Amino acid sequence: MHHEIVFDNVFFEYPDKSFALKNLSFTINIGEKFAICGNNGAGKTTLLRLLLGLEFHQKGKIKVQELELNRDTVREIRKRIGFVFQNPDSQVFSASVYEDVAFGPRNLGFSEEEVEEKVERALEIVDLSEYKEHSPFRLSFGQRKRVAIAGVLVMDPAIIILDEPFANIDYPTRRSLQRILEKDVIEKGKTLIFTSHSRLLIENWSDNVLFLNKGVKLFVGSSSKLSDFPETEKFLGKF
């Protein structure tokens, strides 16, 4: 089994020593749905910041697709990862849905013809083709979330990371987003990583799960085995 991501004894501390990830080791396989969970302040956001090279660990190793993450490789690694924020308003900013999704490929210097082809395809995947001329700010929260996902899918990254992807959306919207991600990410053998507080989602939608508490790994392994660890109940509710 090839590893997509490897954390090997990673230690990270903020300069004010307010929080640290302590000797964290785990692997994520290619094509896996991997959940990261834990209570607020567990270290989920810090872990994602390290993976995106927004912070750099002080000890240990992080590898993405066999490439060791450091200041020299961070730009290359970022090209391989698509990140969807919890709040779509953090990444949706253009005057129209089309312009928003076109931003990434235009930035990479694709021709306008190629940009159009990529954007049309991404909007089709998230079922927003008819909204391409709309302002994203006049759409519902769930629709803006789909615009944000289209903006990531259009770049065709090997790894997609979603921060609390289904927070603040109703069940039908959640199911449609899951179907979109299953079709365009999972079925294409890409790797999907998501953070969540929802025990139901973790148990039913992830292959493996990392459970963090105050920067320490409590559990990593099959999501079906999470219920064997009673200490996780106080964060995720009863199993």
Automatic annotation (TrEMBL):
PROSITE patterns named among the record's database cross-references: ABC_TRANSPORTER_1, ABC_TRANSPORTER_2
Domain of life assignment: Archaea
InterPro entries with a match to the protein in the record: AAA+_ATPase, ABC_transporter-like_ATP-bd, ABC_transporter-like_CS, ABC_transpr_CbiO/EcfA_su, ECF_ABC_transporter_ATP-bd, P-loop_NTPase
Keyword S-adenosyl-L-methionine in record: no
UniProt entry tagged with the keyword Thylakoid: no
Boundaries of every ABC transporter domain copy: 5-239
Primary location class: membrane
GO annotation, cellular component aspect: ATP-binding cassette (ABC) transporter complex
Keywords, alphabetical: ATP-binding, Cell membrane, Membrane, Nucleotide-binding, Translocase, Transport
Family: Belongs to the ABC transporter superfamily.
PANTHER family linked: ENERGY-COUPLING FACTOR TRANSPORTER ATP-BINDING PROTEIN ECFA2, HEAVY METAL TRANSPORTER
This protein's name: Energy-coupling factor ABC transporter ATP-binding protein
Highest classification ranks of the organism: Archaea, Promethearchaeati, Candidatus Heimdallarchaeota, Candidatus Heimdallarchaeia (ex Rinke et al. 2021) (nom. nud.), Candidatus Heimdallarchaeales
